[in-house]
């Protein structure tokens, strides 16, 4: 049995993966007893699905209201895990990206969710020029607006609700850095990312890799687009982020394009 806790010291939600045969009520009671701040326990009942890549959850204990304020690295994020995608386990990865951003950079975050990556960047690098976020999930976009405001970053982060393909083209801008945190489906937007990137700009491309060859598929996808667009790529870093499903990992490849 594994679980994540999203929230703060006053109120949090636990998201648990129940193995068949386990007593879910007992597990929920134990979590709430050990972690006094956990007011609701949600059980995963589906894989991520649909355009918004959301799971179905079942409340197995506690409060029906699962909206929380999650705190990490000096900023806070309001969200409801039943309405938006958010992983507390990726806090360190958000910091890894944020630490690389240099003063004066213009950054694009595709599939930006409740804006955790953008807020991490602006919080860590106050001299970033501007961060543009595009998100199709209306609930996530609304939470992002509140999060940007609550962290006093409205002057640095520009939020757009809509489809990445259409909205990025409408912007008609070139970026120093593009973050693509959608592990399934980001490959469909690689052409667009190459097109929106400045010369020698950097892309952080996320994918899911098999444990036999963590980065093979993602590398093939990047190289195929580079070849098609007659671009040169330079791999800067390849990193395993976290387990995604049995024998599969979410991975990230940082690379520059010229």
What is the structure about, briefly put?
The chain has 258 residues and is α/β, with parallel strands linked by helices. It has helices at residues 24-34, 91-100, 116-124, 138-150, 164-171, 190-196, 216-228, and strands at residues 2-7, 12-17, 38-44, 57-62, 68-72, 75-79, 106-110, 130-135, 157-161, 175-180, 197-210, 233-245, 248-257.
What is the strand and helix layout of this fold?
Blueprint: E1 2-7, E2 12-17, H1 24-34, E3 38-44, E4 57-62, E5 68-72, E6 75-79, H2 91-100, E7 106-110, H3 116-124, E8 130-135, H4 138-150, E9 157-161, H5 164-171, E10 175-180, H6 190-196, E11 197-210, H7 216-228, E12 233-245, E13 248-257
Parallel strand pairs: 2-3, 7-8, 7-10, 8-9, 10-11
Antiparallel strand pairs: 1-2, 3-4, 5-6, 11-13, 12-13
Helix pairs in contact: 2-3
The counted number of beta strands is 13
| Total DSSP helices | 7
Spatially, the strands of the biggest sheet line up as 9-8-7-10-11-13-12
- What's the end-to-end separation, in Å? 46 Å
**Strand-residue proportion:** 35-45%
Mean pLDDT: 95
Percent of residues in helical segments?
A: 25-40%
Low-confidence stretches: none
Shape: globular
SSE-based structural type: alpha/beta
Rg calc: 19 Å
Compressed to H and E, one letter per element, the order equals EEHEEEEHEHEHEHEHEHEE
Commentary on this structure:
The structure is a single chain. The protein is of the alpha/beta class and 258 residues long. Helices cover 28% and strands 36% of the residues. The protein has 7 helices and 13 strands. It has helices at 24-34, 91-100, 116-124, 138-150, 164-171, 190-196, 216-228; strands at 2-7, 12-17, 38-44, 57-62, 68-72, 75-79, 106-110, 130-135, 157-161, 175-180, 197-210, 233-245, 248-257. The strands form 3 sheets. It has a 7-stranded mixed beta sheet with strand order 9-8-7-10-11-13-12, with helices on both faces. The chain has a 4-stranded mixed beta sheet with strand order 1-2-3-4, covered by helices on one side. A hairpin with a 4-residue loop joins strand 1 (2-7) and strand 2. Helix 2 crosses helix 3 (116-124). The longest helix has 13 residues, at 138-150. The radius of gyration is 19 Å and the shape is globular. The model has no long low-confidence stretch (mean pLDDT 95).
């Amino acid at each position: 049995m594994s679980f994540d806790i999203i929230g703060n010291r006053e109120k949090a939600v636990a998201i648990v993966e129940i193995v068949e045969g386990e007593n879910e009520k007992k597990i929920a009671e134990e979590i709430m007893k050990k972690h006094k701040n956990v007011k609701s326990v949600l059980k995963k009942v589906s894989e991520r699905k649909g355009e918004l890549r959301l799971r179905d959850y079942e409340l197995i204990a506690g409060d029906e209201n699962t909206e929380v304020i999650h705190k990490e690295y000096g900023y806070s994020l309001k969200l409801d895990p039943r309405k938006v995608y958010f992983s507390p386990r990726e806090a360190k990865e958000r910091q890894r990206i944020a630490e690389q951003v240099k003063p004066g950079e213009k950054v694009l975050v595709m599939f930006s969710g409740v804006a955790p990556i953008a807020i991490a960047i602006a919080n860590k690098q106050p001299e970033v020029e501007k961060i543009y976020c595009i998100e199709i999930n209306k609930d996530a976009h609304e939470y992002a607006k509140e999060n940007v405001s609550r962290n006093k970053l409205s002057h640095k982060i520009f939020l757009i609700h809509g489809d990445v393909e259409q909205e990025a083209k409408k912007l008609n801008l070139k970026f120093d850095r593009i973050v693509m945190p959608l592990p399934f489906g980001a490959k469909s937007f690689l052409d667009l990312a190459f097109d929106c990137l400045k010369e020698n700009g950097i892309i952080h491309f996320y994918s899911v890799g098999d444990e036999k060859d963590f980065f093979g598929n993602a590398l093939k996808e990047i190289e195929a687009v580079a070849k098609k667009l007659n671009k040169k790529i330079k791999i800067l870093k390849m990193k395993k982020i976290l387990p995604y499903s049995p024998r599969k990992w979410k991975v990230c490849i940082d690379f520059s394009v010229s």
